[in-house]
Amino acid sequence: MNLPDLPPTETFALFLDFDGTLVEIAEHPDAVALDHSTKAALSILSSRLGNALAIITGREIEVIDKFIAPLKLPVAGIHGLTRRDANGDVPATLHATADFVETLTKRLSALADREAGLVLEVKASSVALHYRARPELEQLCLEVCEKAIAGLSDVELKRGKMVLEAKSNTANKGTAILDYMTEPPFIGRTPWFAGDDVTDEDAFEVVNRLDGVSIKVGPGDTVATYRADSTTQFVKWLTEGAERIRAEAKV
């Protein structure tokens, strides 16, 4: 791991993926847990950054709220399709469209019901098929998902770590960061973003274009400018950075 020190808190905004970045990925989406020290670091950083810290995730906003409670941070959910700003408001102009969710749920349920270990996660604006417990079914899941979205307009299939997610193609994690960067308290700051998955590459590209700092967590090809070897190493760097910032504030 070779990551830069966090700069003065008035100069940057911090955007963080959740699964695989702040928490280890689990076989079931509900099985993850945010460590107390990580939650404390998020609290410190959010306070010192004037709330210019947001979670950018594939999960729904309400689900992230449960994991980080009692914290309530700005969150972009479902890969940018939903977004809550720093004031706690959800902008009126959302990218989300859920017209296809019911159709996809019906088309994918047969496979999920037939094959033990597959988890079909139905969200407000997307449908995700998790196969972490059955990695040998990856090709079958891919073929079924591609067939399921055939003929559906404005729907794309995102490949993640042992998950395939069908969502609207009108937004992504990169567009979510662009939206935040036009609003207080993010506006005028340099964006930093950390993520672990291929779904985070859109955000890395945006951050790089804005002369920010992009951090890939774990292995894999990436356009990110820095890398942490694992979730454990990234969280260690984050918590140590938060403690340093808190100590400096007391001087």
Task: Report what the structure shows.
With 251 residues, the chain is α/β, with parallel strands linked by helices. The chain is globular. Helix content is 33%, strand content 20%. It has two domains: 12-91 and 171-250, Rossmann fold; 101-168, Alpha-Beta Plaits (2-Layer Sandwich). α2 links the parallel β2 and β3 (75-77). The mean pLDDT is 92.
CA-atom Rg in angstroms: 18 Å
**Structural class of the secondary elements?**
alpha/beta
Mean pLDDT: 92
The helix count comes to 7
Keywords:
globular, seven-stranded mixed sheet, Alpha-Beta Plaits, Rossmann fold, 7 helices, alpha/beta, 251 residues
Quickly describe the structure.
This protein has helices at residues 36-48, 61-68, 101-114, 138-149, 173-180, 201-209, 231-250; strands at 12-16, 53-56, 75-77, 82-84, 119-122, 126-130, 155-160, 163-168, 190-195, 213-217, 226-228. With 251 residues, it is an alpha/beta fold.
